């Protein structure tokens, strides 16, 4: 079996590679997502909690599209990510749209050398924290920067079942190697452990598990190769027959279905 030279999904090395092939953090595929999914629910709960005049911190903002939406009601948004090209794109997008109440900051909250995490805002300055598909390691510093009663809203990928057809693909393209698969175990427990370590408690949590339908073999190829180094991935044309076979044997009403799983949670600081 060929040795895999693939960064662990969602590690710093993985994100560094992704930044060389994508100009933002997004899913470069076309699919049909089931109703009442976690992505829509996150937007709804953010809209519910975001009030005029709030100061908002977005953690792991990627290329900054959500921060622009937040800025329509917030008095000020600070949005950060550790990937410099994505932050540069975000700042340019905001400038092009005439949005001037966002600070985009290239920042890594983790500081392993000093065994601490530091959010890029001052004490007692945040009314609302938002994090969509971002990390958890920043939570210990939330209490320092939060105003009394500040709310944390976080949408996390939840571990998905590995599809039966993955064994039909080359080993490097097995589902557990792609960026979609976290392999992190129970996100519910991880969240509660992080909150407990920070002296915080969970207010509410909601799980979402809906179908995501793919109508095209190339789009399914895009999913299983997302985040993998290009030199580790065979061209679609070389393995197109394998994906066509997957559609022949596993499609439902013409579409291959993956589970789209998310965990949305809320905590109140102070």
Sum up the structure in keywords.
single chain, 270 residues, globular, 8-stranded mixed sheet, 30% helix, Rossmann fold
Characterization of this structure:
The structure is a single chain. This protein has 270 residues and is an alpha/beta fold. It has helices at residues 12-21, 38-49, 65-70, 84-96, 142-145, 187-197, 217-225, 236-250, and strands spanning 32-33, 55-59, 76-81, 102-106, 110-111, 116-117, 126-132, 146-157, 202-214, 256-269. The chain has a domain at 12-22 and 30-161 and 183-211 and 260-269: Vaccinia Virus protein VP39 (Rossmann fold, 3-Layer(aba) Sandwich), CATH 3.40.50.150. Strand 7 (126-132), helix 5 (142-145) and strand 8 (146-157) form a beta-alpha-beta unit. Helix 7 crosses helix 8 (236-250). The longest helix is centred in the C-terminal third of the chain and has 15 residues, at 236-250.
Protein topology:
Elements: H1 12-21, E1 32-33, H2 38-49, E2 55-59, H3 65-70, E3 76-81, H4 84-96, E4 102-106, E5 110-111, E6 116-117, E7 126-132, H5 142-145, E8 146-157, H6 187-197, E9 202-214, H7 217-225, H8 236-250, E10 256-269
Parallel strand pairs: 2-3, 2-7, 3-4, 7-8
Antiparallel strand pairs: 1-9, 5-6, 8-10, 9-10
Helix pairs in contact: 7-8
What is this structure, in a nutshell?
The chain has 270 residues and is α/β, with parallel strands linked by helices. It is built from eight helices and ten strands.
Main sheet: strand order: 1-9-10-8-7-2-3-4
What is the CATH level 1 assignment of the domain at 12-22 and 30-161 and 183-211 and 260-269?
Answer: Alpha Beta
Low-confidence stretches: none
CA radius of gyration is 19 Å
Largest sheet: 8 strands, mixed
Percent of residues in beta strands?
25-35%
Q: Which CATH-level-2 architecture of the domain at 12-22 and 30-161 and 183-211 and 260-269?
A: 3-Layer(aba) Sandwich
The N- and C-terminal alpha carbons lie at a distance of 53 Å
């Amino acid at each position: 079996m060929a040795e895999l030279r693939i960064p662990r999904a969602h590690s710093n090395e993985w994100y560094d590679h992704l930044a060389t092939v994508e100009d933002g953090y997004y899913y470069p595929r076309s699919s049909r997502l089931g109703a009442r999914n976690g992505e829509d629910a996150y937007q709804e709960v953010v809209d519910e909690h975001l009030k005029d005049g709030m100061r908002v911190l977005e953690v792991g903002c990627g290329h900054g599209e959500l921060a622009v939406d937040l800025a329509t009601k917030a008095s000020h948004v600070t949005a950060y990510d550790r990937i410099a090209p994505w932050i540069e794109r975000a700042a340019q997008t905001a400038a092009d749209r005439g949005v001037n109440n966002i600070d985009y900051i290239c920042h890594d909250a983790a500081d392993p050398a000093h065994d601490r995490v530091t959010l890029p805002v001052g004490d007692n300055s945040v009314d609302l924290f938002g994090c969509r598909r971002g990390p958890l390691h920043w939570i210990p510093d939330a209490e320092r920067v939060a105003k009394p009663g500040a709310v944390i809203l976080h949408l996390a990928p939840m571990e998905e079942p590995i599809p039966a057809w993955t064994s039909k693909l080359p080993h490097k393209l097995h589902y557990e190697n792609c960026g979609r698969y976290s392999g992190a175990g129970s996100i519910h427990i991880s969240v509660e452990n992080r909150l407990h370590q920070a002296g915080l408690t969970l207010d509410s949590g909601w799980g979402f598990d809906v179908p995501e339908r793919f109508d095209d073999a190339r789009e399914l190829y895009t999913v299983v190769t997302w985040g993998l180094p290009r030199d580790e991935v065979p061209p679609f044309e070389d393995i197109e027959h394998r994906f066509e076979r997957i559609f022949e044997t596993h499609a439902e009403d013409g579409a291959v279905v993956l589970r789209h799983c998310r965990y949305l949670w809320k905590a109140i600081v102070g």
